[in-house]
Amino acid sequence: MNPLQEDMENALTGSQSSHASLRDVHSINPTHLMARIESYEGREKKGISDVRRTFCLFVTFDLLFVTLLWIIELNVNGGIENTLEKEVVQYDYYSSYFDIFLLAVFRFKVLILAYAVCRLRHWWAIALTTAVTSAFLLAKVILSKLFSQGAFGYVLPIISFLLAWIETWFLDFKVLPQEAEEENRLLIVQDASERAALIPGGLSDGQFYSPPESEADSMAFSTYKIMSSVIHQ
């Protein structure tokens, strides 16, 4: 092929591709972008995400469930008043369940303060509560005489251990990744909105704009046709 013809074809192809890219940029719907930004900003104004609120509810369930089991244990072993005085006032590490209840209170206070009040986005608080719970329960099971006191000697330590690790799993694999993903989506949408705002002409709702061909492009195309006919002759 003649070099002059190749240059003309390259110039025409570049002009058409530039028009296509302009059409793609101007086809962005600003209304749609603004609606998505408002939806993400509305979630931020809530103060706490849905998945984080579910996590806080589960932490509350942890405390209430352990408290319920402890009250049942008090009532089974000779009445609430007598057993409460024995386990709290005359506390004995080797036979009392009161410290397991306090462990649930500790988890509740730390996790609610960190992830509901301070809205922490790190795992160190849940790591602290889970490590303390696991170490304390393992030591208590090994050293104490809970297994000789009936079914509650098995139930309370196992339930507390499982709840602590379920909280860790839920925060690490659900709460933090989902909130990070939503934040990234918001940044992407905001960036697209800023780019759309730089487009001149102020598009209306649902309007698509395609720029007309310039005179230089028309002349280039005409020149290309003339040169092609001359070359073929």
UniProtKB/TrEMBL annotation:
Molecular-function GO terms, alphabetical: cholesterol binding
Annotated signal sequence range: none
GO terms of biological process kind: cholesterol transport; vesicle tethering to endoplasmic reticulum
Main localization of the protein described in the UniProt heading: membrane
The encoding gene: STARD3NL
Organism ancestry: Eukaryota, Metazoa, Chordata, Craniata, Vertebrata
Membrane topology: Multi-pass membrane protein
PANTHER family the UniProt entry points to: STARD3 N-TERMINAL-LIKE PROTEIN (PTHR46121:SF1), STEROIDOGENIC ACUTE REGULATORY PROTEIN-LIKE (PTHR46121)
Name of the molecule in the record: STARD3 N-terminal-like protein isoform X3
GO cellular component: endoplasmic reticulum membrane; endoplasmic reticulum-endosome membrane contact site; late endosome membrane; lysosomal membrane
Domain of life: Eukaryota
Pfam families membership: MENTAL
